[in-house]
Amino acid sequence: MNITRIHGVASGADFSSQLADNELTGRFQFSIIDQSSDFGHLEFGLLPGDFFNFYVGQGSTKNFDPSSSNAYDRASDGQFWLGLQPGGVFESVNDRQPNGSTLNRAWADITANNTGYFLRSDLLRTILGKDAQHRVGNQFHGDHSTQAIFDNQVAGPSSFPSQFTFNIFGEFDVFAVPEPPTPLLILLGMTIGLSFRRCRNMSRRLQDRITPLNAAGSS
After folding, report:
1. In Å, how far are 83, 175, 181 from 111, measured between CA atoms?
2. For residue range 164-176, what is the model confidence (pLDDT) as tens digits?
3. pTM score, two decimals?
4. Kindly report the CA angle at 204 between 202 and 207, in degrees rounded to 5?
5. CA distance linking residue 122 with residue 81, whole number of Å
6. DSSP string, 136-186
């Protein structure tokens, strides 16, 4: 995942200059835990062994290269910065849109926070004016209070080697305190490699990685 900027949604403060000296990279693995019969609706979760971790790279660890044969290792060789692990709240749905595109939306609670900021739980989608209505199983849900939300959509096949399958783009939002008490919006351009394997209950494990972050500041 390549984050191109970080800024305060309400304040407009831009922290992107810090990316000249830092990269934020990550690796994640999560599972498809349910789906509609036509696979137009997918539900994701963090099963035992799954994770969603970010790392800050500086100096020799500011080295991510998606074309490198060890790109996965480079994505996790920095300082551990933020993590989502099983046992925390992670709810993610991917729905086919009327124009045929897909939209993945997720609600998450942080289980490991080394950012130096308190990340407050709140109704982030409501605050940002984003659509919060979604279905999980046969139940429809509205917004709920979490520390982070993110959206992504598929942009097309990856231009990188075979370890990455799709290019996707999206946003990641957190409510950082004591910095300006507004959600911080991180615009993402993500290169994702997908590999599937059959799991219990016909769920399939999705393996992914996130490329460097062009980002800065209070996130």
Report:
1. 6, 15, 21
2. 777 778 888 888 8
3. 0.78
4. 170
5. 21
6. ETTEEE----BSEEEEEEEEEE-SS-TT--EEEEEEEEEEEESS-SSEEEE
